Amino acid sequence: MEQPNMSYIQSMSGGDKVFEQKLIGVIKREFPEEKEVFYANLKAGNYLKTADNVHKLKHKILILGLEKSYHTAVSFEDDLREGKTHLSADFEAILITLTDYLKTI
Amino acid sequence: MNCIIIDDEETARAIIKQMCSLADGLTVLEEFPNAIQAMKYLNQNEVDLIFLDIHMPDFTGFDFIQSLKNPPKIILTTSDSKFAIDAFEYDCIIDYLVKPVLPARFEKAVLKARKTELKQEVVIDSEPKEQTTSDNDLYVNIDRRLIKIDIPSIYLIEAKGDYINIKTQTKNYTVHSTLKKIEEKLPADLFLKVHRSYIINVDEIVDIEDNSVLIKKYVVPVSRSNRPELMNRLNLL
């Protein structure tokens, strides 16, 4: 599986290391909250809301450089709006990868 | 140029805010996690530019734009490119940024906003562009000529980006203007805005269906919010 990276954050920060750390702090705080809501909605079968959660999470997937995973997220979001959940495991694997990565930065 | 940022995702707001700080002459006045808070702010403050997320819970970016009487320039920010076509329906939207926003693309959008600001200043200086001299005449500026249009002969006006298409019984005219401006010049008893992109001559209605009205051969959409006013105008049996 592809690995997360800081390329985007470094490219948009204008070399501002303080901002980079601040942004990482925001992501570290926001990502677990979004993930929790995602799992709750998925478990409850609220697929439209789950799709909205994926929509929001997919931005962070790209910010952290997971381009292939982003396409999985897009498909999963579309599927959820039609009540289909077969990409759940793939998407959850992406969330685990990001969770692990955020522990390292 | 000053701006506000509306996005329910803090990460997205932080990124736009940083890019604004790196751009010359662009000041972020406030940021909001939802459109309702921004509306309250805009009731009391003027801004030049809004960075607006489309996909927000409860009240979307498009709902927000429709709620504004005089929307400032808006740059949409979204994770989906599929709303781009809808964006063309609004004169105030000057660009559309797909997240995560790239610095070069951001700069291009801000440059567009600055150019639009300059254009608007020129238009204000040379106004009035549309002048009425009698109750039945409307003068429009086309290629530096003031052309007279007989108002009752207009049956449909359609907004297309920065232009409006005025369709009359004899000829069609494309004018650099907005629906809002021309609406102010037209007699309210004869014309009605039925959609954000269309004004119709009520006398020219052929028939009405649920969400559309037939004007000559043109099927014109009627928005939900404008439908009650349209129905009030009709002499219903």
UniProtKB/TrEMBL annotation, chain A:
InterPro entries: HPT_dom_sf (IPR036641), Sig_transdc_His_kin_Hpt_dom (IPR008207). Residues 16-105 form the HPt domain. This is Hpt domain-containing protein. The keyword Translocase does not apply. Transmembrane segments: none annotated. The modification Phosphohistidine is found at H55. One of its GO terms (molecular function) is protein kinase activity. The lineage of its organism: Bacteria, Pseudomonadati, Bacteroidota, Flavobacteriia, Flavobacteriales. Keywords: Phosphoprotein. GO terms for biological process: phosphorelay signal transduction system. Gene3D superfamilies: HPT domain.
TrEMBL record, chain B:
GO terms for molecular function: DNA binding; phosphorelay response regulator activity. It comes from the Bacteria. Residues 2-114 form the Response regulatory domain. PROSITE patterns: HTH_LYTTR, RESPONSE_REGULATORY. Pfam families: LytTR, Response_reg. Transmembrane segments: none annotated. Keywords: Phosphoprotein. SMART domains: LytTR, REC. The modification 4-aspartylphosphate is found at D53. Residues 138-236 form the HTH LytTR-type domain. This is Response regulator transcription factor. It comes from Aestuariibaculum marinum.
